[in-house]
Amino acid sequence: MDKFISFLKASWEEVQHNVTWPKFSDLQSSSTLVLVASLIFALLVGLIDLVFENGLNAFYQSF
């Protein structure tokens, strides 16, 4: 148990003193980039789904 407690203490020291945390503005710009990329990807997948759905419906109705 002592090893685990010393591990937790060392980990907390590492987080407090040796980790470089990004600035809030950097986090905001990264989050905005992820949001925009996710929306573009969702629209692209939705468009592909629409094209396949209409194409398959036209194909099945031809029989």
TrEMBL record:
Return the Gene3D superfamilies for the record: Preprotein translocase secy subunit
Q: Where are the transmembrane segments?
A: 32-52
Record keywords, A-Z? Cell membrane, Membrane, Protein transport, Translocation, Transmembrane, Transmembrane helix, Transport
Q: What InterPro entries does the entry give?
A: SecE_bac (IPR005807), SecE_sf (IPR038379), Translocase_SecE/Sec61-g (IPR001901)
Location (main, coarse): membrane
Tell me where in or outside the cell this protein is found. Answer: Cell membrane; Membrane
User: What exactly does this protein do?
Assistant: Essential subunit of the Sec protein translocation channel SecYEG. Clamps together the 2 halves of SecY. May contact the channel plug during translocation.
Tell me, how does this one assemble?
A: Component of the Sec protein translocase complex. Heterotrimer consisting of SecY, SecE and SecG subunits. The heterotrimers can form oligomers, although 1 heterotrimer is thought to be able to translocate proteins. Interacts with the ribosome. Interacts with SecDF, and other proteins may be involved. Interacts with SecA.
- The entry's protein name is Protein translocase subunit SecE
The record lists the organism as Spirosoma telluris
